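Project standup — Tuesday

K.O.: blocked on the structure for the chain from last sprint. Re-posting the sequence here as requested.
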Amino acid sequence: MKNICYLLLMGLLASSCASTKKMEAIQSQLENCEKDNSEASRDLTAAKVRISSLSSDSAAMQKRLDEIIADTVRQSKELHQSEMQLASLRKLYDQLNDQLGKNNVQGEKEIKALLSDLQKSQEKLQVREDALLKAEDDLKSSAKALAEKEKKVVYLSKKIGEQDSSMRALRQKVATALKGYVGNGLEVVNKNGKVYVSMDEKLLFQSGSWNVDEKGAAALGNISKLLADNKDLQVVIEGHTDNLPYRGYGNVDDNWDLSTKRATSIVRILLKNEEIDPSRVTASGRAEFVPIDTTDSREARQRNRRTEIIFSPNIDEIMRVIGGE
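H.V.: unblocked you, prediction finished:
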C-alpha cells in the first residue's frame, strides 16, 4: 500500500513540474512577442515624433536659408567692390613703379614711401578678398546643408503620409474582404498607424476551445489573401480571454495557455498560404490582462474574449533616413 501511495505522489510531482516548465516556456514566448511588438510600435512612434519635429523646423530653416542668400548677395557685392579697388591700386602701383624707374631725382623718396603704402593697402585688400571668398564658400555650404535637410523633411513627411494613406486603404480592403462578418462579431479599425481586426470568440472558437471553427477559418482565409498581396506588412495575432480562471478541458493550464494556443492556431491557418513568409507573423497570448471593457459584467467578459489581428507597416525606410542624419 505504501508503495502505491509513493508512486501516486511521484506521478503528481512529475506532472506539476512538467506543467510549470510548459508555463515558463509559454511565458518566455509571450515576453519575446510582446517585446517585438513593443519595439515596432516604439520605432513608429519615434519616427512620427521625429518627423513632426523636423517639420516644425522647416519654416525656421527656410528663413535662415533666405538670410544666407541675402548675405551671399551682399558679400558678393563687397567682393566685387574689393576686386575693383584692388585692380585700381595695382594699376596705380604699376604706374608709380614705372614713374620711379624713369625719375631718379628728388621725388624718389616720396614715391618709394607712396609705393610702400600702396603695397600695404594692396595686401590688406587681398586678405579681405580671401576672407570674403572663404565666407562665400561657407555660406554656400550652409545653404546646401539646409537645402538637404529641407529635402529630407519633405521626403519623410511624404513617406509618413503615404503610409497613413496606405493603412487607411488597407482598412477599407480588409473591411470589404470581411464584409459578411463586420458587425457580426468582427470589427476593423485604424489605430496608431496600424489596422486592427478584432474578432469575437464566438466567431472563431467554441467556449474553452482553441480549434478554429469552419466559419472562422473562412474569414481567416480572406485575411491570408490580403497578407499575401501586401508583402511589406507585418502581422501580430493576439489572443485575449476574460478574467475568469480557465476551467475547460484538455491540455490547457490557464488563460495564458489558452490565449497563446488560440493565437498559434490562427497563425497555422494563415500560413497555409505559402506566399506568406512566416517571419512576418507573430503569435502572442495576452490572457486577461489587456481588456477593452474593465467593468465586471457578463457583457464585458464577452467583449474581452477576442482575437486581434494587427497589421503594421514596414518602417525600415523611414528609420534608415532618420538614422542617417
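K.O.: great, moving the ticket to review. The chain is about 70% helix and 10% strand. Residues 2-102 form the longest helix (101 residues).
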